[in-house]
From TrEMBL:
Record-annotated Phosphoribosyltransferase domain positions: 44-149
Pfam families: Pribosyltran
Domain of life of the organism encoding this protein: Bacteria
Its biological purpose: Catalyzes the transfer of a ribosyl phosphate group from 5-phosphoribose 1-diphosphate to orotate, leading to the formation of orotidine monophosphate (OMP).
CDD domains registered for this protein in UniProt: PRTases_typeI
SUPFAM superfamilies in alphabetical order: PRTase-like
Name of the protein in its database record: Orotate phosphoribosyltransferase
Residues that hold orotate according to the record: 148
Lineage of the species this protein comes from: Bacteria, Bacillati, Actinomycetota, Actinomycetes, Kitasatosporales
Family named by the database record: Belongs to the purine/pyrimidine phosphoribosyltransferase family. PyrE subfamily.
Transmembrane spans: none
Length: 180
């Protein structure tokens, strides 16, 4: 890690790493977790994370697509940092109003980069990539703030999606220890 990335990791660890029980959707309980809402609530940290992530956006990207809910503030900030339009992805189509699953920028026929806060198994990003591909979007890349080593990178790679992560879980652990 560079000095600036180490500093950012330390700030993220201090702001968004929580030591407490956290239940995942599959029922697994973690003893600590990354609270993306604490990141999103700190405008300077969110800005700095987006600036750092902007260098990970692949050449030729046309749309950044944030996965609800953690990816939405990130994609807004990353859109502002890069000048690329943003789309917002729901896990399921809205039941009323527009009844859309994809809001914001048009994605059909465009090179879309998925954006999320944390990647664990990769299942959520894979589901979003599949849904976008059905709309005609070209999805070959995904970005996240934090990658946990639970197989997400491998799963996505097996389905033609390259994952770029700003930090690995070990980066935050190391930074938290150094900050203590």
């Amino acid at each position: 890690m560079t000095t600036s990335t180490t500093s950012l990791a330390a700030r993220l660890a201090a702001t968004a790493c929580v030591t407490d029980a956290f239940a995942l959707a599959d029922g697994q309980v973690l003893d600590s977790y990354f609270d993306e809402y604490r990141l999103a609530a700190d405008p300077q940290l969110l800005h700095d994370v987006a600036d750092a992530m902007s260098v990970l956006v692949p050449e030729g990207a046309q749309v950044l697509a944030g996965v609800e809910l953690g990816g939405v503030p990130l994609v807004v900030a990353l859109s502002a940092a890069t000048g690329l339009p943003a789309a917002f992805l729901r896990r399921t189509p809205k039941r009323y109003g527009s009844k859309q699953q994809v809001e914001g920028a048009a994605v059909g026929g465009r090179r879309v980069v998925l954006v999320d806060d944390v990647v664990r198994s990769g299942g959520q990003l894979l589901a979003m990539a599949r849904m976008l591909r059905v709309t005609g979007a070209h999805v070959a890349d995904a970005l996240c703030v934090l990658e946990r080593p639970l197989g997400g990178r491998l799963l996505l790679n097996e389905h033609g999606v390259t994952l770029g992560s700003l930090l690995l879980e070990s980066d935050l652990t190391t930074s938290a220890g150094a900050a203590s």
